[in-house]
């Protein structure tokens, strides 16, 4: 894939570190080395003549300009060994490394690049409201545009949408110290987690403390408290907590390529700071509507953070859905997907989702909560088409922000479905459908694998599979008719997928073995046909599905607790 070099953005002239042209230019190549050898030969000849006349010379560093102690020149034994008839060979040319050892022996550079890149690296950056060292500010603000751009576009700074969003958000840095320090802190956390470093540095904690101090000062002014900059600063601090605990085992469900879209593979690894989240909720309530945020792109990111929080806590989103674009859906509310896109994946995806409508017919007598579930399932099927086309390398008429909107739209609707207990408690609706809750939880597991991939942090999958196990234990499945029994089997497979690497995995495998006795299946392909009639993405999950089939064919793992 050809990498598109982005054009310099407006902030780069003032925030980027000094250009490479200001650094000492490395002198490389055989031609230069040969020239250096000729100069060395002439200098050595003069030294020998001076020594013959009883004179001494002083070697002066051409770079440092300092005079070391007076010593008689000594020929280099290694160079003399390789010299033939005083003729310089390009193969024996003096390397730049050897030349520096000889001529710059007394010159020592600092190990910190910013010190010699910027002479004033330890002084405050005068163009921004911060007392942080110049080198620290420039180093992290240099990475900030890329980090921001990836929130709205997979192309990041190579795309117009990413550059525009980064420029809009950074435009107010010079007027709002809270936003400035919060963003520097967020970049430090982002870069550290991306590098696989768990523990924060003292500098990182200090910058975070400065951000909170400035934020408290700005929020104390009622007239300027609800600015876009302050809302963004609180949002950044709320979703840039410490790195959460990750799975200790190697096993984890395989996931689709979308795990890096909007950098959720990084942000979903961070703990959510509840104090800042509560502050953000209060600010949004006082604002009245997220759409009142004037800076383009901030409101959709706030909405996305609400989705991430819902996925982490297996709860409903705390913010309404707001999109980056308007073209991601059709007028009827379905995702903007063409028939050509559907036909392109028909052979690979099979009769995706059709078996749900054989269990529940959508008609006037269908309860509203079931209608909502079926609508979301249709959206999940549509987005699976997008995932397959994109993963297959097929051209699709969607921009990166539109794909982000479609994914977040589907995930927001799915996480917004009320649990069965909440439906009964909050709406007094009698949930007669015994498979509603288990199906809802199984759909969330599927989404965590294909639609909105959740990284291997401790919590989401553990909570999901535990809830699903409890709901299944209360389900009397032996009286199910064939279509409901197929749905029950798909739900169990989703539980086995979500519990990969977890203690509940054997329980799901044993339940699958029991249900398979009601079917005439001789091979994995028979089970796959059933799974594809519900929700299944072969390119992502076939290997894990094969593992499940092999496990149940070999008797599974039968610890005592798994049989309960």
TrEMBL record:
User: Bias regions of kind Polar residues — which residues?
Assistant: 52-64
User: Which residue ranges does the record annotate as region Disordered?
Assistant: 1-99
Which segments show compositional bias classed as Basic and acidic residues? 29-51
Entry protein name:
Uncharacterized protein
Q: What is the lineage of its organism?
A: Eukaryota, Fungi, Dikarya, Ascomycota, Pezizomycotina
